[in-house]
Fold this sequence. Notes:
The chain is mainly alpha-helical. The protein has helices spanning 9-18, 23-30, 34-39, 46-56, 60-63, 76-96.
Amino acid sequence: MTNFQGWHVEDIKAAIRKSGSTLMEIALAVGLHPSGLSQCLRWPVPPANRAVAAHLEVPLHELWPQWYGADGELLASTSSERKRVQSGRHRQKERAA
């Protein structure tokens, strides 16, 4: 189920379903907006990623080694990449307006 890139998004969703839960139930249990958990499958959202990892009882770095180190901390390159992507989206919205 794991590889160099970590778990596949569909494997994570299947494991959650097999546990008898849903992303929405996990989000509500930890006080997060349900869309945050959906987003955390594709982008690093630390509180949501931690909730999913805790629910599955799998370390963050095993689910998402491209985002998290063995210490469970977000990798520096990940946060700078995300800021770059977000700022690009922001500029696109400005141009459209």
